[in-house]
Specification:
The structure holds two protein chains of two kinds. Chain A is mainly α. Chain A has 21 helices and no strands. The longest helix of chain A has 39 residues. Chain B is an alpha/beta fold. Chain B is built from 15 helices and twelve strands. The chains are: A mainly alpha, B alpha/beta. The interface between A and B is large, with 57 and 55 residues.
Chain lengths: 503, 326
């Protein structure tokens, strides 16, 4: 009973936080206005790029996750941590890193030039490459997480039955993918829906106009609130439609109760498979790590020459830790079907609309600038929530169904269940979710346009300010610092969650 | 019980502050950053005003329009000419009370609500090590070799991007779309804001970027780098003004007036060039820092007042969008 009550409270809190601002803006703008021709064009492009981006991210993540799940090699843990990095960088930094590799004067074109070849990154393919760069690591980790949740006994049983890798795929891995991949697709699809700066820059121009750009234009230039809210709701309904589609395809993961340990795979020892796996890992690592290496190369010269950056570091760390705590408090009771829907709405809603709505709600009571950091922490927690829920839900549900009967038989009360059964078994996904949230929150500008406290600057804002003041080299140094701090936070949480596990 | 002395201290502190009047100034984020003009201006104004000047950084007009009459702002600084129509129609602003004759601008300034505090020309900035002969007009840009690429900002999300399409529209009128079609192959990409575009330029991704004629001053003065230059177009350049205004409902009218007067003072004006990297609005050219006097300057200023720019804006953006979407 108590746990159901907590779930209901969490659902209400999060939906209130998402729809409250929409209602506030609706009231302010006096209703909605109809979409115009340019809006439909933006809608089409938004749908197209988000679908392609999510499809490629998941399609590439499957072989990568499988390779990482069945291979042990030196540096595997560090590689898995590093692979998370693109996702947590501020957009502008990641784009500059990506272009240092794929751009006009990037590494790739320099390598191709002697052969008279050149590659033009700008266009729809560029948008997709950039979004895959951001989201492939996330998809890989989500799917890998699912892979590691297959009880080792299943693989042992499969190998004692003498099943081939193909047969194991059909009997064990395919059901897993049916359960995990559609949801990973939806989360990435929804996050790509609200892409704006990346889509525009890599898309090469106004052909790559997304709904979020229209919302930005409508709110900041035209101040047409009624139109902006309509666009935001349009974006939100795309996300819900995607969620509904995925429910049709997604199967429930069912492996039954296991001994709850992980052991190495016995199959897949043939050379072609080993080669295939390492080729896959190598290519993905190069694709993700080269742009990051460029961020390091560009930032290193000014890393120790950043001026008074420490207050910004401190504020960002505080915000990150607060967001993480808040996000987990929401995510644990929301690790179910309803919760996943609610959480999705958070990232589907335009951050600008969210910020303006919160501004309207808070303004009569407090000075918006004095609550800049708390608001940033709350919004960042909301932005990370769908990822946290997605990471926690599969294993949370398995634990519920596998241990529920046992717990009832033993008469465990809610608290003992939580402490002795639920949380210990969720340790790995909780660690991963916490790491992701903390790192994501470090790199996110959130709702800074209306909630910027002059005395409490965060590190991403510091970077933007350096860039705005022509100090591009120092900005690169600050970006490297941000990257290092985010990765360190991610590593600490993620590692904490994986302690005692052979992963 | 440690909280009690702490709370008492807090009250004492706020009581002390309550005696000092607060002047609240809304400003864009870059203005208030430690490298922008904000800190110098705050310190020098506070020397004479017996007040506490507080900058509140962030979006200017959206925030003001959301707050309406309840705004706590006394002064707004950092608006530009392309939003003044909307700002004026809100009725939130009072007369600036300064003599426009004091201004040293390339055009005649007649507005008695919005007061320019700095200005520059929108222009393309190029890297002399990568481009020997930059085009000297939009038509020349259209006919340039294919590998001449430029990064611009989107007029729908960036003020400088909007200034660019208004510039083309003002010069070419009905031919604007044709010009954009010619220029389109040379546009490497379009970014959300100025920082992204300028970052791509300094990273060497493109040899030319949409910025301001005053941008090279930063590279010369701060980095000793003379390889970044503004291209001067024969047809003239769009002039870009940043404005300040007094909020009509201010509860500190005298302080606000004092600040408007301060904007026109040499102290304020001298702080602008090397923090905001733009021309001061009320200093004769001979009083500018040498590096600014030496910059290449357009022969002709192009400017659309707020009514003309409002009338042309939607068409100009739509022509740009159509031409670049092909």
């Amino acid at each position: 009973m108590a746990s159901r009550l907590i779930s209901v409270i969490a659902v209400l809190a999060v939906t209130g936080l998402i729809f409250g601002p929409v209602v506030a803006l609706l009231a302010f703008g006096g209703g909605l206005s109809w979409p115009v021709a340019a809006d439909w064009q933006a809608l089409r492009f938004t749908l197209l790029q988000a679908t392609l981006s999510a499809a490629f991210s998941v399609a590439l993540a499957i072989p990568t996750a499988r390779a990482l799940a069945r291979r042990q090699f030196i540096g595997r843990g560090i590689l898995i941590t590093l692979l998370g990095a693109p996702f947590i960088l501020p957009v502008i930094v990641a784009v500059l890193g990506l272009l240092a590799v794929f751009g006009q004067s990037g590494l790739l074109n320099s390598a191709l030039a002697p052969f008279g070849l050149s590659l033009n990154i700008y266009g729809l393919h560029g948008v997709v490459i950039a979004h895959v760069f951001f989201n492939l690591p996330l998809a890989t980790r989500m799917i890998l997480q699912g892979w590691l949740a297959i009880p080792a006994e299943r693989f042992r049983l499969a190998s004692s039955l003498g099943l081939s890798s193909g047969q194991i795929f059909r009997s064990l891995e395919w059901p897993l993918l049916r359960a995990v991949a559609p949801s990973a697709f939806v989360v990435i699809f929804v996050i790509c829906l609200s892409s704006f700066a990346v889509a525009l820059t890599l898309g090469g121009g106004p052909k790559a106009t997304t709904l979020e750009l229209s919302i930005y234009q409508t709110l900041r230039f035209d101040f047409d609130v009624a139109h902006a809210v309509m666009l935001a709701l349009l974006q939100l309904s795309l996300a819900l439609a995607a969620g509904a589609m995925s429910l049709r395809f997604a199967a429930k993961q069912r492996f039954g109760a296991a001994m709850d340990r992980i052991i190495p795979r016995w199959d897949a020892r043939s050379w072609p498979l080993v080669l295939q796996d390492f080729a896959c890992i190598g290519l993905v690592a190069a694709f993700l790590l080269l742009p990051l290496a460029m961020v390091v190369v560009k930032g290193a010269p000014t890393l120790l020459d950043l001026g008074n950056v420490w207050p910004a570091v401190w504020h960002s760390l505080t915000v990150a830790l607060a967001s993480t705590a808040l996000c987990l408090i929401w995510a644990l009771p929301l690790a179910n079907r309803v919760g996943e829907w609610v959480a999705l709405c958070g990232i589907a809603l335009s951050p600008l609309v969210l910020g303006m709505g919160l501004f309207l709600i808070l303004r009569p009571y407090v000075s918006p600038l004095s609550v800049a950091l708390p608001v940033t922490a709350v919004v960042n927690a909301l932005m990370a929530l769908p990822f946290a829920v997605r990471i926690l839900r599969p294993e949370a549900e398995v634990i519920q169904s596998d241990y529920h009967r046992l717990s009832t038989a033993l008469g465990l009360n809610g608290f003992v269940w939580l402490r002795r059964v639920f949380l210990p078994r969720l340790r790995r996904p909780i660690g991963f979710a916490a790491g992701l949230t903390a790192a994501l929150s470090m790199g996110d500008l959130g709702v800074i346009a209306l909630f910027a406290d002059p005395d409490r600057v965060t590190l991403p804002l510091y970077i933007y300010r350096l860039m705005g003041a022509y100090r591009m080299e120092q900005a690169a140094g600050a970006a490297l610092l941000l990257l290092m701090l985010s990765l360190a936070l991610f590593w600490v949480f993620d590692r904490g969650g994986r302690a005692n596990a052979a992963t | 019980m440690k909280a009690l002395p702490f709370a008492a201290g807090l009250f004492a502190a706020s009581a002390a502050l309550a005696d000092t009047p607060v002047l609240t100034v809304y400003a864009p984020d870059y203005f208030t950053s430690e490298w922008g003009p904000g800190p110098v201006i705050e310190a020098s104004f506070e020397e004479s005003c017996a007040c506490d000047l507080q900058f509140k950084p962030g979006d200017l007009l959206p925030r003001l329009l959301l707050e309406g009459n309840k705004t706590s702002a006394d002064i707004v600084i950092g608006l530009n000419t392309d939003v003044t129509k909307k700002a004026r129609e809100s009725g939130l602003f009072a007369h600036h009370g300064q003599d426009n004759e004091q201004l040293e601008l390339p055009i005649e300034w007649t507005d008695d609500v919005f007061l320019p505090f700095d200005w520059s020309y929108v222009s393309f900035v190029y890297d002399t090590t990568k481009l020997e002969n930059p085009p000297t007009s939009f038509e020349a840009l259209a006919q340039a070799p294919d590998d001449l690429k430029v990064v611009i900002q989107d007029p729908r999300s960036s003020i400088s991007g909007l200034a660019l399409v208004l510039w083309v529209k003002a010069v070419y009128g009905d031919r604007a779309e044709e010009i954009w079609k010619g220029v389109a192959p040379h546009i490497l990409t379009v970014t959300k804001g100025w920082s992204e575009a300028y970052g791509l330029f300094t990273d060497g991704e493109a040899p030319m970027v949409l910025s301001f004629t005053t941008s090279p001053a930063y590279h010369i003065a701060a980095e000793g780098d003379e390889t970044k230059k503004a291209v001067i177009f024969d047809e003239g350049h769009y002039a870009y003004f940043e404005l300040a205004a007094k909020v009509a409902g201010t509860d500190q009218p005298e302080l606000a007036d004092a600040f408007m007067a301060f904007i026109m003072s040499p102290t304020f004006q001298n702080a602008i060039p090397e923090t905001n990297w733009s021309y001061p609005s009320a200093l004769a050219k001979s009083d500018w820092p040498q590096v600014f006097q030496d910059l290449a300057e357009p022969g002709k200023a192009i400017f659309l007042n707020e009514d003309d720019s409002a009338a042309l804006r939607d068409d100009a953006i739509e022509e740009w969008r159509r031409a670049l979407s092909q």
